[in-house]
Design a protein that fits this description.
Length: about 200
């Protein structure tokens, strides 16, 4: 049996290490294909699926230790698939959470979500030393986590045959009988606006 020279051993070791590192790194959240979701709608060959992430286990799969819903922010996953022949654009897209009795909540930009808890009341405790002043401790802002931005919907357009996905964030609790209202999606070639989507979340 031939001995492997040191150069080949090193190359093999590096290859294995690279594969293990790639597997470890490749643990990000991956939505399913749009067809897999129960709540979806197709208009003019554009299919949009939505799913609220108010369940702790679902939130963990997307945001790790952070559960935005515990801090008053409902993440809603939006998955799109363009089965048409033309590109669609999202520059003028608007998305709202529509609750019973017509109450509407606009999506909060992900960069703003990071600072929603910035004004959390600090904790004040008395010093054990009689001459010492009170100690003021400002708690860490739980929503100031870049995963909020990383998971957000960021596509500006969607060519034929492509898919896009990401989260929109709403400052609301989640109740039954609600839906996601999406308008302002346009055809890239003509600038014509597609008919609005209203997709139930239940």
């Amino acid at each position: 049996m031939k001995k492997m020279n040191s150069g080949k051993c090193l190359l093999l070791f590096l290859s294995i290490a690279a594969c293990l590192w790639a597997d470890k790194k490749d643990t990000g959240f991956r939505p399913e294909a749009v067809e897999a979701y129960a709540t979806k709608q197709t208009i003019q060959d554009l299919t949009i699926a939505v799913q609220p992430f108010d369940d702790p286990e679902e939130a963990k799969s997307a945001f790790g230790k952070l559960n935005p819903y515990e801090h008053g922010v409902l993440p809603v996953l939006v998955v799109m698939k363009n089965n048409g022949k033309g590109t669609v654009r999202f520059e003028t897209m608007e998305i709202r959470y529509v609750a019973p009795k017509g109450r509407r909540v606009d999506a909060t930009p992900p960069a703003d979500v990071l600072y929603l808890k910035a004004g959390t009341r600090p904790k004040v405790s008395n010093s054990p030393i009689p001459t010492g002043g009170p100690k003021i401790k400002v708690g860490k802002n739980p929503l100031k986590d870049q995963v909020i931005v990383e998971r957000a919907f960021a596509a500006k357009m969607l060519p034929p045959g492509d898919s896009a996905s990401g989260f929109f964030y709403f400052q609301t609790g989640h109740t039954r009988g609600t839906s996601i209202y999406i308008s302002g999606i346009t055809e890239a070639a003509s600038g014509k606006e597609l008919f609005f989507f209203e997709i139930p979340l239940d």
